[in-house]
Amino acid sequence: MKYNILLLAFFLFINFSCAQDLKPLDEENDNSILVEETNYEMELIFEDENIIWSIEFIDKNSVLAAVKSGSIFKYNNGVKTEIKGVPEIYLRGQGGLLDIALHPNFSENNLIYISYASGSRDAGGGNTTISRAKLIDNELIDLEVLYQGTPNTTKGVHFGGRMVFDDNNHLYFSIGDRGNRDKNPQDISLDGGKIYRINDDGTIPDDNPFINNPNAIKAIYSYGHRNPQGIFKNPDTGEIWTNEHGPRGGDEINIINKGVNYGWPKITYGINYSGTTITKDKELPGMAQPLYYWLPSIAPSSFEYISSDIYPEWKGSMLAGALVFKYVERIGLENNKVVFRSKIAEGVGRPRDIKQGPDGYIYVAMEKKGVYKIVPKE
Asked: Cα dist. 17→14, 22, 36, 134 in Å?
């Protein structure tokens, strides 16, 4: 009995301490109250019971959907076609087929880029891999690996894998810390916990920040990240923006700058899932502050910037999937500062990817549900 009382007291103390730690941070984020959006409808475009991790548009009538378990499908006017030639993936935990991106000149060269976990148990586990291929007649041909994270690990977390091109045809992609936060993110000689930048053929740009550092991985563009799960190119500035999973609290929005250390895990606004402290430091010299951090965590899964005139009231804001709460979050900006947050599609499902299509509409891939179009009400 005495042991049980002491154990209960310990847990109450931990919970109280965590609440005390989180309270002032919530007060700093005084825009944490979310408003429910009502001026839209969710239209189911195609139903799919798989976990669609990412979507990409070939044109107004054709969308590619990457399924975590290792398949890519094309949906065209209601017809579903499986894409052949998809590389073998390492399916473990959060790892699988992760993201797809089309080359900016896809209409001319048919190049498609794929991020996925590769490896096997016999190979010591897996890590994040970036490949490209040509999409010809519903088949991937001439597949080549452009980048492969090392070493393999059997840990099934924090693969990252989101990709985006900038205005100069550089490909940016993320690899999470792979569950080794105390080693990978702060060491530029190791993969994991980084944003990378390569040329569209896999070579390293001459102006990458660590190109002349003999001990660094040359593809690294920024470091000190946990697990970036959303990325977009800001159409107004050309900047690369990411969101990333924090631990318990401390999900972040970051504008990615060359050679910058974003601090994980030396600084964070989050705590361990158990309630214990990761670090008391929320800022340190030489480490960038996030543009915004979420308390409590929403588990952001994707990221998109709204530039479409179809949504005049939403134009210029951002969308992120909130996995833990099962809604799409709209994030309003003024002068690169988050000024409000609102909820879209609450309770529809877990939003895994969000894309603005070539027709200007916003599309959302919901786990085990399919792809929805957000249609404004007249």
From this structure: 5, 9, 31, 54
Across residues 295-322, what is the average pLDDT?
A: 96
- Say if residue 315's pLDDT is above 50: yes
Token duo for residue 354: 């969000």
Domain that holds residue 8: 1-30
φ/ψ bin of 38: left (φ > 0), alpha (ψ from -120 to 50), beta (otherwise): alpha
Residue 313 is assigned to a structural domain of this protein? no
Mean pLDDT of 258-267: 98
Q: Are 41 and 375 in contact (CB under 8 A)?
A: yes
One domain, residues 20 and 92? no
Residue 326 φ then ψ, to 5°: 60, 55
Q: Which residues contact 175 (CB under 8 A, 6 or more apart)?
A: 127, 128, 149, 159, 160, 161, 191, 192, 193, 194, 196
Percent of the chain surpassing pLDDT 90: 89
- Domain count for the chain, please give it: 2
The residues annotated as belonging to the active site are 158
Residues 108 and 24 grouped into a single domain: no
Tokens of 279: 């670090």
Q: Are residues 23 and 54 in the same domain?
A: no
Band of the pLDDT at 11, cuts 50, 70, 90?
A: very low
Say yes or no: 168 and 285 in one domain: yes
d(CA 21, CA 11): 15
Give the model confidence (pLDDT) of 119-165 as tens digits. Answer: 999 999 999 999 999 999 999 999 999 999 999 999 999 999 999 99
